[in-house]
Design brief:
mainly alpha
Length: 179
C-alpha cells in the first residue's frame, strides 16, 4: 500500500498537483500525505468499479461510478477544508481581541499567541498551537502566523499579520492596532 501511495504521490508531483492536494489536506486537518489521500481515493474508486461491475455488468456504469467516487472524495475533502476556514474566520474577531487584550496585559507577542492557542476554540486553537510549536523550533512568530494565514487561506488574517509585522518593525502600540 505504501508503494502505491508513493507512486500516486510521484505521479501527482510530475503533474504539479501535489502541492495543491497537500494544501487542501492541511487546511481540512486531514492527517494524510498527498499520495496517501490520492491512493485512498483511487482505491475507493476501484472498489466502486468492481462492485458496479458485479451488480450491473455494465462497463459504462462502472466508469461513471469511478468518476463519481473520485469527485465525491475530492468534494468531501474540499468541503472539510472550506468548513475549517469558515470556522476560523468566524472566530477571527475574537482571536484578534484576545491577542490585543493579552498584549495590553503586558504579554509579549509569543505569550499572546500562546494564550490564543490555549483559549480559542478549534480550529483556531490548533493552528495557534502549531504556531507556538514552530516558534519553539526557532521560526519567527510573525512567520508562523503568516503560515496560519496561508494554511487557512484567510485574507483577513493575512492582513492582520501584515499589520502586526509592520507595527513590530515601525514600533508603537500593537494592542491598539489589533483592537
Amino acid at each position: 500500500m505504501s508503494r502505491f501511495a508513493k507512486s500516486a504521490e510521484e505521479a501527482a508531483q510530475r503533474r504539479g498537483l501535489l502541492s495543491g492536494v497537500n494544501a487542501v489536506l492541511e487546511q481540512a486537518n486531514i492527517p494524510l500525505r498527498g499520495g496517501e489521500a490520492l491512493a485512498a481515493g483511487l482505491g475507493l474508486s476501484v472498489i466502486d468499479v468492481v462492485l458496479a461491475g458485479l451488480f450491473t455488468s455494465s462497463l459504462i456504469a462502472a466508469g461513471v461510478g469511478f468518476l463519481v467516487v473520485l469527485l465525491l472524495v475530492a468534494g468531501a475533502i474540499q468541503f472539510a477544508g472550506t468548513r475549517e476556514k469558515r470556522i476560523f474566520e468566524r472566530h477571527l474577531p475574537d482571536t484578534l481581541t484576545l491577542l490585543s487584550t493579552s498584549l495590553r496585559a503586558g504579554y509579549s507577542l509569543l505569550q499572546a499567541v500562546e494564550a490564543v492557542a490555549a483559549e480559542a476554540p478549534q480550529p483556531t486553537g490548533r493552528e495557534f498551537g502549531r504556531s507556538i510549536a514552530e516558534s519553539r523550533l526557532g521560526r519567527p512568530v510573525v512567520d508562523t502566523m503568516q503560515a496560519i494565514a496561508e494554511r487557512m487561506r484567510s485574507e483577513d488574517f493575512k492582513w492582520a499579520v501584515m499589520a502586526i509585522e509592520i507595527q513590530r518593525e515601525v514600533g508603537g502600540n500593537l494592542a491598539e492596532v489589533l483592537k
